[in-house]
Amino acid sequence: MTVRVQQKDFNLGDELKTLHKGNHAIGGVCAFTGLVRDMSHNGEISTMTLEYYPSMTEKILQKIKAQAQQRWSLEASLIIHRYGKLNAGEQIVLVATASHNRDAAFESCQFIMDFLKTKAPFWKIETDLNGNQQWVEAKNCDNIIASNWTKNN
Question: Cys-Cys link to 78, which of 21, 22, 90, 96 (CB 3.0-4.6 A)?
């Protein structure tokens, strides 16, 4: 069960192969790859810069993974989140989960991603085509989606 915060890009195929390599108990792998969009509610952007506090961020990502492991029987899981200056179209995050069945893989992957959006301490700055910068604000709709996971627990 791996968590990595890194500046360099990742190879989706290689990461997924490594995730389930040699584990024949895995019946389903679900992966979500997030990309930097070229548009925001403020218009077209060219880059997004992500900042974070290393020890704090990794601890929270590990906690989110542990919560997913408690809810679902996972054989493996992976979170890779990039930081630094990223161009529109670049990969920013990979969440992958592997389980005996697809339901656990799908649900746990969505759970982890929903909590990354709301709990992971990353600070994002968008830069538009004119070089103007703006902090990315948290979205209330993301908090509502994440809160749905805790309503019945």
Answer: 96
